[in-house]
Amino acid sequence: MLSGLTIRGRCLLAAAVASAICSLVLDERDLLRVAVFLAALPLLATAFAARGGRGLAARRELEPWRTEVDTPTTVRLWLSSRSGTPVGATELTDSVPSTLGGDAYRALDRSPGRGGTTVEYTIHAELRGVHRIGPLRCRSGDPFGLSAFDRELLTTTRLTVVPRVFELTGLPAGFGTGTGEPGSGRARAGEGTDDSTVREYRQGDDIRRVHWKTTARRDELMVRTEERAERGGTTVLLDQRAAAHRGVGKHSSLEWAVSAAASICAHLHDSDRRLRLVGAGGDPIPGDDHRSSRLDVEVNEALLLEALAALQPSGRRDLAGGEDPARGQDLVAVLGRTTLAGADELASLRPAGARSLALLLNVAGWNTDGKEGGQSAVARRLRGAGWTVTTVDGSTTPIPRVWENLCEQTVSPDIARTDR
């Protein structure tokens, strides 16, 4: 208990000891009475503060508990005292990640009492992610400032910061409908089309299905598999490879790509389109358990945005993973830095006639050293394979404008470039 004494309390206790010694040496009873008083005061104050501090209770609320980047969130702390013992000055410290502005400090001049009191502060999330607010610690003491105790009142509370979703307009002609009507870009594969993909060789595969061209390029056995295209759906491919992006923080190319993918997915949901979101290598986001067809838009979108909030850069080197990431569906790819070999592989895995669109990020626009070249050669290679491609040159390029440009190109095949 004595560990809770402040400097003032320790000085009084030391004065009590000195007075007691002097009373014995000088044989003065009055000094002994003073010593008892000086010793009793900090000890009683310590017991008082310890009892009062244990009676404090707290509750934390986040409004909202899930928010977009650059949107404020109000943190509300409800404090009450369950004991009848009044508490002196109380200092509150709520731990907040540095990306949200750092720890929040508040001071209470008096005890919250049984009726309670409310403390609020606001945080601004500049970067998406799943953050933890807390723990909440308090430092409370007696009214005379002779003692103080540190306690943890609350554990952590989760705050999900989802990427910013921009409102998009329009759709690529015939995209995601599976109708293949004229003027819709490239017609979908028909019943007689060879809807095949290429994957790694597995034990028991027929050796006659080995795809020798891909095997030679990847230096490992690859086999051709027959796969029926899933009609009327759209797959959004988000390239989250760490090596494919440049920049740091909210202005990095990865954050731009995540926001673009979130906006496209939300727009396709609002348009009542079947949707899959996958990462590099065709890995589903948030997972195959959440694949759906025309499910409730709000629930589905919430799952998707939470998955994107927690998305981390991937250490993968390949983009396609040896098979068509869209499984024969229409494809919208948000690509970071891509090599010509990667573009060739991605294009070769797509079924003949399948609609393929790409937002190609020229990550040199996010590169601070300026030593990396553009991706014009990759854009030409994908266009030569029948893709519709628009390039993005920097973080200031508006996502709605890029999407509008992409939609226009599916009607008019003119090559367009979106500048900063």
Report on this structure.
The chain is α/β, with parallel strands linked by helices. It folds into three domains: 7-50; 56-162, Immunoglobulins (Immunoglobulin-like); 234-412, von Willebrand factor, type A domain (Rossmann fold), CATH 3.40.50.410. It is built from eight helices and 17 strands. The protein has helices at residues 7-26, 29-54, 212-218, 253-270, 297-309, 340-349, 376-384, 399-411; strands at residues 56-63, 66-68, 72-81, 90-94, 104-108, 117-124, 129-133, 136-141, 148-154, 157-162, 196-200, 222-226, 233-238, 274-279, 330-335, 356-361, 388-392. Helix 7 (376-384) links the parallel strand 16 and strand 17. Helix 1 packs antiparallel against helix 2 and helix 6 (340-349) packs parallel to helix 7. Mean pLDDT is 81; it is low at 178-195, 227-231, 288-299 and 412-420. Keywords: Membrane, Transmembrane, Transmembrane helix. Residues 198-283 form the DUF58 domain. The chain crosses the membrane at residues 7-26, 32-50.
Described by strand count, sense and barrel closure, the largest sheet is:
5 strands, parallel
Spatial strand sequence of the major β-sheet? 14-13-15-16-17
Helices, by number, come to 8
Extended strand count: 17
| CATH topology name of the largest domain | Rossmann fold
Radius of gyration, in angstroms, nearest whole number:
32 Å
> Beta fraction of the residues?
15-25%
- Span of the ends, CA to CA: 64 Å
Task: Summarize this structure as a short list of keywords or feature phrases.
membrane, 8 helices, 24% strand, transmembrane, alpha/beta, single chain, DUF58, 420 residues, transmembrane helix, Rossmann fold, elongated
